[in-house]
Amino acid sequence: MGNVQSFRFRDYKIRSDSLSEATYAATCVSGDEADCDAQSGEEVETDKVERWIAEHVRDTGHQRYRRTMADYVTAEPGAWR
């Protein structure tokens, strides 16, 4: 599935790249004066990131995180308009 975007009178189909895997990561944003900023590193399995968060909570008591997902996409040109 993909979205159709237009640029300079041409449509492009934006699709997930089937040759790559999405990655997940977390950053600790807890802290009194400033964010802790500890990071999980990128993983292809969400379970590993969630385990890192649980261990960080256990070790620090920090309870607020920024979780991200990144993937690769392709832009496939369509017809000119």
Short description:
The protein has 81 residues and is an alpha+beta fold. It contains one helix and five strands. The chain has a domain at 20-75.
Q: What does it look like?
A:
- The protein is an alpha+beta fold and 81 residues long.
- It has a domain at 20-75.
- It contains one helix and five strands, in the order E-E-E-H-E-E.
- The protein has one helix at 46-60, and strands spanning 2-7, 10-16, 23-28, 65-70, 73-80.
- The strands form two sheets. The protein has a three-stranded antiparallel sheet, with no helix packed on it.
- The longest helix is centred in the middle third of the chain and has 15 residues, at 46-60.
- It is elongated and about 55 Å long.
- The model has no long low-confidence stretch (mean pLDDT 90).
SSE order and pairing:
Layout: E1 2-7, E2 10-16, E3 23-28, H1 46-60, E4 65-70, E5 73-80
Antiparallel strand pairs: 1-2, 2-5, 3-4
Could you tell me the number of beta strands?
A: 5
The termini sit apart by 22 Å
The radius of gyration is 19 Å
Query: What is the beta-strand fraction?
Result: 35-45%
Low-confidence stretches: none
**Classification by helices and strands:** alpha+beta
Using the alpha-carbon principal axes, give the shape.
elongated
Largest sheet: 3 strands, antiparallel
What topology, given as strand order, has the largest sheet?
1-2-5
Determine the fraction of residues in helical runs and give it as a percent range: 10-25%
Number of helices: 1
How would you spell out the order of helices and strands? EEEHEE
Mean pLDDT: 90
